[in-house]
Automatic annotation (TrEMBL):
Top-level taxon of the source organism: Bacteria
Signal peptide range in chain numbering: 1-25
Protein name per UniProt: C-type cytochrome
Cytochrome c domain mapped to chain residues: 58-159
Keyword Cytoplasm part of the UniProt annotation: no
Organism this protein belongs to: Acetobacter thailandicus
PANTHER family on file: CYTOCHROME C (PTHR11961)
Claim: Nucleus is one of the keywords in the record: no
């Protein structure tokens, strides 16, 4: 008698686990495991706060040192001075891939309808290959949010595209 009870208990456990698995699979198939496009509700002030956390205020002097170290081999910081990469004068707010004399990769040209916001610069500098798959900027990326913030602060000192009516022609 005891073994029949154990058999039933065993079968019940196996069946329950099986059903839990099936339910889990069905649930996962119906509800995708991604963040919702729009939050169900928003707490006033939270969105701004999280953007500020993501993009810390950088130190432009430290950024200048980093720029010489990491970017200077391929970029000049004055308008009209193209080298391996395009010049970075007024890059903050500048339209992506907009130096007319520079020959960009199709990957970057495809983003030309957008401008370089701080968030985009940060995403780009985290991993150029991820931001624009196929880009010719062979730079692995800066994993440190502090270093990116410092660099972006420095890039702001190179002028801001919004301040000019039109970018210099050279
Ligand atoms: C090994 C060379 C190399 C290094 C190092 C490099 N870049 Fe670049 N960068 C490029 C090239 C090449 C492009 C053009 C990419 C393309 O057309 O896909 C580019 C493009 C860019 C652009 C887009 C410019 C535009 O007009 O839209 C930005 C911004 C940029 N680089 C910033 C940086 C910063 C900041 C650093 C330093 C952290 C850096 N790059 C390091 C080669 C480099």
């Amino acid at each position: 008698m005891k073994s029949i009870f154990l058999n039933r208990l065993g079968a019940a456990v196996v069946l329950s686990l099986g059903m839990a698995g099936v339910s889990w699979a069905a649930g996962s198939a119906v509800v995708p495991d991604t963040a919702p496009a729009h939050p169900a509700f928003s707490v006033p002030g939270m969105e701004k706060a999280s953007a500020e956390v993501a993009l810390k205020k950088g130190n432009a002097e430290r950024g200048a040192v980093l720029a010489q170290q990491f970017c200077g081999i391929c970029h000049q910081f004055k308008a009209g001075q193209e080298s391996v990469g395009p010049d970075l004068a007024g890059i903050a707010g500048r339209k992506i891939a907009s130096v007319t004399v520079y020959s960009y990769s199709p990957a970057l040209v495809a983003l030309n309808n957008q401008s370089w916001t701080d968030q985009k610069l940060s995403d780009w500098l985290t991993s150029p290959m991820h931001f624009a798959p196929g880009t010719r900027m062979s730079f692995p990326g800066l994993p440190s949010a502090d270093q990116r913030a410092d660099l972006i602060a420095f890039l702001h000192t190179l002028g801001h595209a919004d301040e000019k009516a039109s970018p210099p022609a050279q």
